[in-house]
């Protein structure tokens, strides 16, 4: 595929990517061998380009935040916003492509297809999930589980070979990208170990040495020790949560004569009534809303110091956030919010942990309908004689409601538990 794309015109290249995106958006399964070949070709091409850990680009640029396995929505954005745009020169991805909405393989396939066969200059940054692979996140559909299922269906492809291809791809991904010498794009944010771009671009640095920009480690700067609390917090409870104050962000920008940090990170905001009996928070996560967040105003540039973007709409079918992409054109930055692709197919999870996650709304509606009928439905039973006691009356009402509930359970075709036989009355 890498050799083929050199012979194609820009129109033909767009057509190849358009077909791949249409394929994914329609919900057609992409065969694992095809995904592996495309990702391997992308790895080879990035290696030949001698891509640096800190890239610099100029010209019209589009920036994606974390996609987290939302391949159908990602494909729809490519078809509706990216491929028709004739002015965009660069596309930057801020990492965290995998683990979440059960289509991580399709996301990697589309990004690899863009790298191998498109007119755009693609900068795919590494995120926390790629850097920590194959460690599997808790309570989320993971890339490794997806590959396990695909390998079970395609015995000719081994899991070890697939994992090696993915690891090689993640190993060549850069850490950060600077756009127009003004915008610093990264998965996490600034790091106290590297204060200048010159230090980050030094030949001795490696992906491992720059992991502080990605793995959300707490900063250790004077600003952090002086300030009480943090302005930008990924998680209050996690010891590895990414924390940096507004002063630390401004100092990083000032040192490097930059205008803004653009980070690809979920912005967490709490919602007290979210974890309830009616709708428990299975993922133990907070709400990702609204898809982007603007930080406080930089005192010198008078623009927001930090822009946080997230490009996975309605994250995992649980959160009600929009997707966000950023377009930088002609010294202008435009934030675009995009909703869920309305016609996206239902993708059922591939692991036992999510056996009922996708069916939760349907199950809730059925249970609510049953409960309403039990509580408010008419009980067609003869009233007991007035001479009976109040206790006898309550007992008959309970029996009537239980009979009504059994009728409703049978109507909904739900299995009934076995009821032990009672001894005859003496």
TrEMBL record:
InterPro entries, per the entry: Calcineurin-like_PHP, Metallo-depent_PP-like, PP2B, Ser/Thr-sp_prot-phosphatase
Gene3D superfamilies in the cross-refs: 3.60.21.10
Name by which UniProt lists this protein: Serine/threonine specific protein phosphatases domain-containing protein
GO biological process, one term: calcineurin-mediated signaling
GO molecular function, one term: calmodulin-dependent protein phosphatase activity
All residue ranges annotated as the Serine/threonine specific protein phosphatases domain in the record: 24-337
Pfam families associated with the record: Metallophos
């Amino acid at each position: 595929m890498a050799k083929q794309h050199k012979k194609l015109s820009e129109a033909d290249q767009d057509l190849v990517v358009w077909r791949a995106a249409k394929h994914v958006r329609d919900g057609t399964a992409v065969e694992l061998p095809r995904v592996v070949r495309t990702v391997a070709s992308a790895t080879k091409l990035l290696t030949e380009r001698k891509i640096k850990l800190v890239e610099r680009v100029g010209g019209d640029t589009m920036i994606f935040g974390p996609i987290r396995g939302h391949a159908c929505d990602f494909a729809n954005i490519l078809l509706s916003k990216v491929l028709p745009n004739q002015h965009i020169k660069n596309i930057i991805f801020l990492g965290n492509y995998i683990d979440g909405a059960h289509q991580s393989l399709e996301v990697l396939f589309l990004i690899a297809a863009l790298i191998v066969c498109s007119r755009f200059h693609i900068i795919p940054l590494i995120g926390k999930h790629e850097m920590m692979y194959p460690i599997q996140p808790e309570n989320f559909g993971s890339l490794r589980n997806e590959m396990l299922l695909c390998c079970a269906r395609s015995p000719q492809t081994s899991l070890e070979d697939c994992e090696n291809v993915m690891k090689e791809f993640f190993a060549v991904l850069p850490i950060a990208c600077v756009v127009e010498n003004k915008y610093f794009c990264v998965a996490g944010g600034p790091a106290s170990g590297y204060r200048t771009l010159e230090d980050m671009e030094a030949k001795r640095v490696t992906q491992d040495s720059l992991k502080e920009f990605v793995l959300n480690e707490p900063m250790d700067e004077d600003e952090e020790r002086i300030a009480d609390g943090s302005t930008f917090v990924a998680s209050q409870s996690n010891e590895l949560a990414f924390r940096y104050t507004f002063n630390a962000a401004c100092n990083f920008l000032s040192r490097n004569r930059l205008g803004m940090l653009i980070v690809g990170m979920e912005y967490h905001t709490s919602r007290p009534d979210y974890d309830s009996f009616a709708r428990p928070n299975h993922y133990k996560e907070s709400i990702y809303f609204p898809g982007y967040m603007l930080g406080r105003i930089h005192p010198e540039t008078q623009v927001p110091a930090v822009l946080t973007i997230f490009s996975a709409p309605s994250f995992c079918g649980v959160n009600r956030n929009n997707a966000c992409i950023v377009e930088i054109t002609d010294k202008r930055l435009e934030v675009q919010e995009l909703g869920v692709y309305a016609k996206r197919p239902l993708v059922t999870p591939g692991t036992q942990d999510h056996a009922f996650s996708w069916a939760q709304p349907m199950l809730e509606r059925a249970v609510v309908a049953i409960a309403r009928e039990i509580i408010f439905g008419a009980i067609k039973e003869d009233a007991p004689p007035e001479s009976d006691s109040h206790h006898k009356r309550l007992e008959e009402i309970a029996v009537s409601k239980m009979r009504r509930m059994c009728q409703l359970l049978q109507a909904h075709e739900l299995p009934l538990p076995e009821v032990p036989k009672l001894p005859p009355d003496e």
